[in-house]
Structures are given as C-alpha cells and as structure tokens.
Amino acid sequence: MQNSYKRVDAHLSSLGYCSRSEAKKFLKMFRVCIDGVRVFDVDKKAYHNDITVDDEVLDAESLLILLNKPHGVICSHDDAGVLIYSLLPLRWQRRNPKISTIGRLDVDTTGAILLTDDGALNHKLTSPKSDVIKVYEATLAQELRGDEADIFASGKLMLNGEKKPLLGAKLEVISPLHVRVEICEGRYHQVKRMFAAVGNRVVTLHRVSFGDFSVEELKPSQYKVITI
Ligand code: URA
Question: What's this model's pTM, rounded to 2 decimal places?
Fold first, then answer.
C-alpha cells in the first residue's frame, strides 16, 4: 500500500477533500492532525498514513471500486447525459488523478464495472494482452439456431470490419432466449457484434462478473471498495 510523503494541501487536494487554494480554509474548518497534533500550515509535510481529518484516517491513496452499473449511465468523463462517476461520493469525484472505469460498458449494458485512479492497473487490465474473463448474460431477439456455441468456441469468428478472428468464447444456453457468454477479450460492442454475426440481436446485456469480481450481491448503482 502507498504511503506518500508530501505537503498536507497536496494530500487533501489529490484525495478530493478540497482544492489546493481552499486548503487553508479547510484546515480552519476541520481538525486536520498529523500524528494527533492539529496543523494549520498547508505546507507542512507528512506521510499519508499519519494524517487524520476530524479523527478519521484519510481515504486510501489508490482506490479500486466494483460498481453494479445501472441501465442508462455512461462510462465517460465528458459525454452528455448521466455519467457513471455521478454515482460515487463527491469527494471521490474530485480526486486527482481522476477515477476512471476499467474499460467501458455500453449505456444500455448493466452490471460489473471496475473503476480506479491507478493508471497502471487500468492499463494492465484493459490491455489487449489482458486475459481477464468477463461473463455476460444476454436476452436475445430470436431463439438460437443451435450452432452458435460451436461458432463462438471456434476461435474463427470474424467480426464485421475486423482483421483478426475472436479468441474462443463459451456460450451456455439458459433458455431459448437467455444465454450466458464468457469472453476473455474486450473488443468494441463485442457481445452484441458476436450475436449480430450469427444473425441474432442482443436485447438486454448484463455483465455478471469481471475476473473474480461479481456484482451478484450488489444492487444496481451500489458499489464496494476492493482492498488492493
Ligand atoms: N459487449 C457489448 O456489446 N457491450 C458491452 O457493453 C459490453 C460487451
């Protein structure tokens, strides 16, 4: 776990408690202590773990959050509409570096999405080389033909406009219009395009899990912090 040593105003502003210019006022309004001793000097340096605000330890320096994305929110920092970050506490929304989603879900897709302010972790988990397994449940517009599981598993399925076939994916039939799909890539609109490639259409899409992280116990919009 990180425990950086820097100015108090730098700690507070990077964690979203206040801006650097508001820090002086913040120290007057809240009991900010280093090792239990109250401070009023914004330029005092300290380790993250030694600082408290009103007797509470500071938020972690790096956050990994699992959120059950509801329908209709957007995985973006700057598109018009309801952004996924608005579901997080205000203080987390003001962190610098920013919290970003690890990959994206479409606006109409629900379910498991990880968010972090750790750029290296985000890069690692979204890299094409990352083989994190993602499990989706989809409802379909038409009943399956019967050959879809073999086609998905073949490692030969080409998506429209792409040069490389998809890696093999697992399809499990839950009922004629309801399936579970397991993929280890994260191509643009991948699941919807896979079903389009076999003449079907995804009507609803829910990501049950991303790697080891499942949202089965989280209600829509609920999140939990994952300790890293
Ligand atoms: N595949 C899609 O088509 N959409 C998503 O949101 C995720 C995977």
Answer: 0.94
Residue 73: CB within 6 Å of ligand 1?
Answer: no
In sequence order, the 6+-apart residues with CB closer than 8 A to the CB of 3 are: 47, 48, 49, 61
Q: Specify the ligand 1 atom closest to the Cα of 105.
A: 6
Amino acid at 96: N
What pairing do the DSSP bridges indicate for beta strands 223-225 and 37-38? unpaired
> Which domains are present in the chain?
5-57 (3.10.290.10), 64-127+215-225 (3.30.70.580), 134-210 (3.30.70.1560)
- What is the number of the ligand 1 atom nearest to the C-alpha of 192? 3
Of 128, 138, 131, which Cα lies nearest the Cα of 196?
A: 138
Q: Give the residue whose CA is nearest to atom 4 of ligand 1.
A: 189
d(CA 123, CA 131): 13
Q: pLDDT tens digits for the chain (228 residues)? A: 789 999 999 999 999 999 999 999 999 999 999 999 999 999 999 999 999 999 999 999 999 999 999 999 999 999 899 999 999 999 999 999 999 999 999 999 999 999 999 999 999 999 888 889 999 999 999 999 999 999 999 999 999 899 999 999 999 999 999 999 999 999 999 999 999 999 999 999 999 999 999 999 999 999 999 987
Two tokens, residue 152: 């998905």
User: Is any atom of ligand 1 closer than 6 Å to the C-beta of 187?
Assistant: no
106 counts as catalytic: yes
